[in-house]
Amino acid sequence: MVMGTSPRVPLVVGNWKMHKTSSEGAAFVRDLACRLGQVADREVMVAPPFTGLAEAVRAADGTCIGVAAQDVFWEKEGAFTGEISPLMLSSLGVKACIIGHSERRKYFGETDEWVAKKVRAALDWNLMPIACVGEDEGQRDAGLTREVVVGQLEAALALVKAWEARQVVVAYEPVWAIGTGRTATPEAAQEVIGVIRERVSDLLGEAAALGVRVLYGGSVTPQNIDGLMAQPDIDGVLVGGASLDIDAFARIVRFVCASET
Ligand code: PEP
């Protein structure tokens, strides 16, 4: 077990996937900012589709909300029709990007090698990579969860240096829990995330393992958020469906820490 005091600020990220027009996204950000006010002890981000990023960044200006992209390409510019570069995102004011989400792996052929290049490119352009890892149902049933998660993690961190770990976020998202209403129990999520932190320690050292933030994702709701956030290694959540609803997302952001109960 990796022991030590945690300097990690909890992070809540809403992944809107292919939902919300630019104006709907900006209105959501304004409404959320009003409800939250200035939040000092946790970090909040929303990840609109590419078309909504510019308006969301404008709406988030001066608020506690950051804006993330849902993907990024690794090249700065060039003949890559349909792609968006890390320079384009960072020059827009985007702070982070989700990389290797299971839907991109499944529907768009994203590979571990691409994930590694995208994580590297994000860091090079001052974007915080949120690298997703997680086993599918068949792999879980076959007892392969650790093997799959560790393999994807090693690939995602292949081009990361130890001193950069604090800027990296890993999201453990069991594929069978995404959009299904079936959440991993807090204890099961903690166990896998503990394994992730151990492996980061092996790969990049203990300081890196203490600095890297590891999120849980998969059917997070207002009902299960407090239990998840009570786990010592869960540093936040990546929220899909529930991040589209302002009441649900605001409640998730206002999760109650174990020490407050
Ligand atoms: C996700 O898409 O990253 C996700 C966790 O979705 P949901 O919360 O809907 O399961």
Structure description:
By secondary structure, the chain is α/β, with parallel strands linked by helices. Helix content is 40%, strand content 15%. The protein has eleven helices and eight strands. An eight-stranded parallel β-barrel has the order 1-2-3-4-5-6-7-8, surrounded by six helices. It is globular. The model has no long low-confidence stretch (mean pLDDT 95). The site of phosphoenolpyruvate (PEP) has 13 residues, from strand 8. Residues 15, 173, 178-179, 217-220, 238-242 line the site of phosphoenolpyruvate.
Number of helices: 11
Largest sheet features = 8 strands, parallel, barrel
**Low-confidence runs:** none
Q: Portion of residues in helices?
A: 40-55%
Q: How much strand?
A: 5-15%
By helix and strand content, what is the structural category? Answer: alpha/beta
How many beta-strand segments?
8
Q: Strand-and-helix sequence, N→C?
A: EHEHEHEHHEHHEHHEHEH
- Per the principal axes of the C-alpha atoms, what is the gross shape? globular
Give the end-to-end Cα distance, rounded to a whole number of Å.
26 Å
C-alpha Rg (nearest Å): 17 Å
Q: Name the strands of the widest sheet in spatial order.
A: 1-2-3-4-5-6-7-8
Bound molecules: phosphoenolpyruvate
Query: What is the residue-mean pLDDT, rounded to a whole number?
Result: 95
